[in-house]
Amino acid sequence: MADAKNSKNSGEKQNPRRRESSRELRSLIDGQEIERQRLSRELHDGIGQSLIAIRMQLDSLSFMEEQEIKDSLDKIQGRFDRIIDEIRRISTDLAPAVLDEFGIVIALRNLCLDTGENARLKIHFEFSGEAGNLGKKVATYLYRIVQEALHNIVKHAQAGEVWVRLDREKERIRLTVRDDGKGFDVKRYPSDSGHGLQNIRDRVKLLQGKLELESGTGKGTLVSVLIPLFP
What is the mean pLDDT of residues 176-187? Predict the structure, then answer.
């Protein structure tokens, strides 16, 4: 009887952990599904519609005069150039090759440059410490955290400038992303609202790290992440 009771108590203690693990897994799966839906929309609404427009332009060439054909081909070439740029951007979002080839510092610097150019946003990036080998999991999650934070800023913050800083210390990594946008009341912001912030939380937790969020209406937002490095 005692063994059965102890087993029951043990199971009750484990249930909250199981529920938490299930919640994290569901959140991760939801995030992946949202990412697939976003990619599907970009392919359909962006690249798909551009290709349809090019096909229609090509079909109409046979009814044009020589000069009109030349002008139309110039426009088609411009559309193809934009499609190539869009495919490169989507490919980088899915699997940033620069991360494997050159490491987290150059990957984050390129991410900040590309995001700033695309969003017409001034993004500053700084790094201190020894880059070294963080391991693929840590490097990938850090990249995704910054990517998610920048996406949220572009979508919601109405910011003019952003500061991204990565500090590599002996036993930990500190990452901060700060913007001068409109901010929000953190106290009124539910911890489970918004897939973007939740995706950041989940990745930080999987790295056994700590996430702090500071913001206020009209005061911008600061996302601070502390990740322990294990030998």
Answer: 91
